[in-house]
Design brief:
Strand content: 25-35%
Structural class: alpha/beta
CATH superfamily of the largest domain: Medium-chain alcohol dehydrogenases, catalytic domain
Order of helices and strands: EEEHEEEEHEEEHHEHEHEEHEHEHHEHE
Helix content: 25-40%
Largest sheet: 7 strands, mixed
Number of domains: 2
Number of helices: 11
Number of strands: 18
Distance between the termini: 15 Å
């Protein structure tokens, strides 16, 4: 089968690999579409820690089942959404229903080879029937579930105010699901191009440049910047009694003035990956027409075309919300 391989930083090639064998409790899948994530750009650029090359990237996946699942939920031919977080099922986090932060987690396309290929084998419990979604929409469920998980963790109230800092795909997803939850959303970034894209997707949200930000405070603040300086500075925009949700994971130390943190009685929330309930919420919102799928899918390519296109998009992501690789039907 064909696979897109990141041989080393800044080196991509389409190679032939053996098709994966079936495994007990797993389902063989024919990949339908792959979303290109910031993590994939980092792998290509050599900026992803603890990654072994060569690597088949890709963890935002839709696929058609090539087998019936042993549990009877999935039939051969069904379109499925892939949850790429492979958890151990035994650690404390897993046993209390939080496999998204499993102590021994492996993520497809990062810790093990992913879905930028024709076929893959995935545990049956990591597959969710896509219903009436098409392959492009189904491949975007995972990245949207990241934002949806953060919003659910925040427990924001209807008619509350929410600030999302960072207008990349994760920030746009968080803003979208904060709106769906009933919040009044402001989206902030330092890129006019990103804000213009975000405004076209979220016309009801307020968008503003970081440089134009005033002193308004918000009930809930979501950081999706990937910038430790922005994360450390965010507290001043949070109202008393508010929640600060960190969607970004970066190297560095969080540092707040304790009096400012305490006088707000701040709730500080780390949000990592997503759970089945978040995937299902995203799919339900897509089915209800609440997610502007066509507007989010800004760029498309093929497996072979990604050899040239992925480096180009990695260099200039300002005009990209979600780029996807479409596989032959």
């Amino acid at each position: 089968m064909k696979a897109l391989l990141c041989d080393e930083p800044h080196a991509l090639s389409v190679v032939d690999r053996p098709r994966p064998d079936a495994k007990p409790g797993h389902v063989r899948l024919r990949i339908a579409a792959i979303g290109i994530c910031g993590t994939d750009y980092h792998i290509y650029g050599g900026n992803q820690p603890f990654l072994a090359y060569p690597r088949v990237m890709g963890h935002e996946l839709s696929a058609h089942a090539l087998d019936d699942s042993a549990d009877g939920r999935i039939k051969s031919g069904d379109l499925v959404v892939v949850n790429p977080y492979l958890s151990c099922g035994k650690c404390r986090a897993c046993t209390i229903g939080k496999p998204n932060c499993c102590s021994d987690i492996a993520v497809l396309g990062v810790h093990t080879d992913g879905g930028m290929c024709e076929e893959i084998v995935v545990p049956q419990e990591n597959l969710y029937p896509a219903g009436d979604l098409d392959p492009i929409a189904a491949a975007m469920v995972e990245f949207l579930a990241i934002g949806a998980h953060g919003v659910r963790r925040s427990r924001l109230d209807t008619e509350s105010s929410a600030l999302v800092v960072g207008a990349g795909p994760i920030g746009v997803g968080a803003a979208l699901f904060a709106q769906i939850a009933g919040a009044r959303v402001t989206l902030r970034d330092n890129s006019p191009e990103r804000l213009a894209l975000a405004q076209s997707i979220l016309p009801e949200a307020k968008v503003e440049l970081v440089s134009d930000a005033g002193d308004a405070v918000f009930d809930t603040l979501f950081d999706a910047t990937g910038n430790i300086n922005a994360m450390n500075a965010g507290l001043k925009f949070l109202d008393h009694g508010g929640s600060y949700v960190l969607l970004s994971v970066v190297k560095g130390d969080l540092s707040f003035a304790d009096p400012e943190f305490h006088k707000r009685e701040t709730t500080l929330i780390a949000s990592r990956n997503a759970l089945k309930v978040d995937f299902e919420h995203v799919m339900a919102c897509m089915a209800r027409g609440l997610v502007p799928v066509a507007a989010l899918a800004t760029h498309r390519t093929t497996l072979e075309g990604a050899v040239a296109d992925l480096p180009k998009w990695a260099e200039d992501r300002g005009a990209v919300v979600k780029a996807l690789i479409e596989m032959p039907a």
